[in-house]
Specification:
Strand order of the largest sheet: 6-7-8-9-10
CATH architecture of the largest domain: 3-Layer(aba) Sandwich
Order of helices and strands: EEHEEEHEEEHEHEH
Shape: globular
CATH class of the largest domain: Alpha Beta
Bound molecules: zinc ion
Number of domains: 2
CATH topology of the largest domain: Trna Endonuclease, Chain: A, domain 1
Number of strands: 10
Number of helices: 5
Helix content: 25-40%
Amino acid sequence: MPFIALKKSTGERVDITKLKSPREELVKGDLICQLCGVPMIIKSGVVRRPHFAHQPSIPCTTNYGYHPESDEHRAGKELIAKTLIKELAGYSTAGIEYEWRCEETKRVADVAILFPNGWVVVHECQLSSITVEELQKRTEDYLNAGIDVVWWLGKNADTDTNRQWCLSTFGECNTIDFKALSTYFKTDRL
Ligand SMILES: [Zn+2]
């Protein structure tokens, strides 16, 4: 349930978070999944942030490690992107993209900072439980592709063991406070 889809007619990448009124601006039937190419629809509600979705009967068949996302995960991605935009403002021309498809690792990064000289730093929002071994493996996959990675731990992934691993691996640990996040998105979004 992503923020990104492709226009079938032009191949153009569409970031739904940048559109004021997606149903006015996007043509029905012209949106496809960037991973598997099947048609996508727009989903939104009063509080729910607009996002794209497969039609429920058609799962995403792809070799990219990609799973359906929760509203919380989408909110987490937005929080990360907004934090990064604030941090980079004024001194960097780097672009920030949601759901950046990494060919080398066959992974979709939640948020990526794309620097004009080719450097990429991916930011992963991890809320579901994950082992240190898996964190290590995903991190190495990115590093071996020449891509730096930053983990943001929240909810079930925010354990002492995982925090400790982040601290000893990166010298820092980013966490996502979900109480603060939901308050923030209730007051500030839409
Ligand atoms: Zn798909």
